[in-house]
Specification:
The protein is mainly alpha-helical. The protein is built from 4 helices and 2 strands. Strands 1-2 form a two-stranded antiparallel sheet. α3 runs parallel beside α4. The radius of gyration is 26 Å and the shape is elongated. The N and C termini lie far apart (55 Å).
């Protein structure tokens, strides 16, 4: 019996909505649209982050040359120096990933890319670890 009451109430409410003036329906549509847009914008904090990291298949000598270039042309390579938060693990690929990402984040709005002669690629996964934080700028 409760189910019948709920169904009849729902049908009555729907029928009432159909009889309301067009302005009221327009306001409802606008409200629903705004709620939808707000829910999308609230969930986009990490949705479009991208990180420039070293390609695992790239030989170390190529990574070294590209990392040197990145550090001399806009990357902040201080954190990959000894006794700094991104020094460990002390591998060419890890250091290159940090340098590539730093360059890319600093220069992407000025025409910089994540190419480095095919030594790097974009990833949506945050490569940060421990105290080493990889930056991602919108």
């Amino acid at each position: 019996m409760i189910l019948l009451f709920n169904v009849s109430f729902s049908l009555t409410s729907y029928a009432d909505c159909l009889r309301q003036p067009k302005m009221s329906m327009m306001l409802k549509k606008i409200t629903i649209s705004l709620i939808f847009l707000l829910s999308i914008s609230m969930n986009t904090d990490a949705q479009f982050e991208d990180y420039c990291i070293a390609d695992e298949q790239t030989p170390d000598d190529v990574l070294m040359a590209a990392m040197k270039w990145a550090c001399e042309n806009g990357a902040d390579c201080g954190p990959i120096q000894e006794n700094q938060p991104c020094y460990l693990p002390n591998t060419t690929m890890d250091h290159a990933s940090y340098a590539f990402n730093s360059y890319y984040q600093n220069m992407k709005h000025k025409g910089g890319s994540c190419y480095f002669n095919s030594a790097a690629l974009l990833s949506a996964l945050n490569p940060s670890h421990g105290a080493c934080k990889f930056e991602s700028l919108p």
